[in-house]
Specification:
single chain, alpha+beta, two-stranded antiparallel sheet, disordered N terminus
Length: about 120
Amino acid sequence: MRDAPDANAGSGGPAGLDLEQTLTMLAWSDPALAEDPGAALTRLGIDVPPAMRFDVRLQRPDTLYLVIPPVPSEENGGENVVNQMDLWRSGDQFVWILPQDAKTALLEMREQYRNHGGEDGR
């Protein structure tokens, strides 16, 4: 396992950790994060939108991850959902893959974390 991210990196929280760094450190130390990431975000002072689901995966060195977009539906006029990838420095890297509409929610969660003081809720 790699060393934890530098405590002085990032902009949020008393130790200078940003949301992605904190989530990475939590995932490395507590496997339950992958089982209930919403609870971990709530512990960090983040209001998780009720309609938003999280799927947390700890990367394995022997696995290639493919994210397949959803089948176009009648609800969105038959258009494909535009997924965005947000690459964030955290340890080696942290990747969010999310529908375009969820980008605003992600930015709000990052802001809530910064405003909460970056405490890990422990």
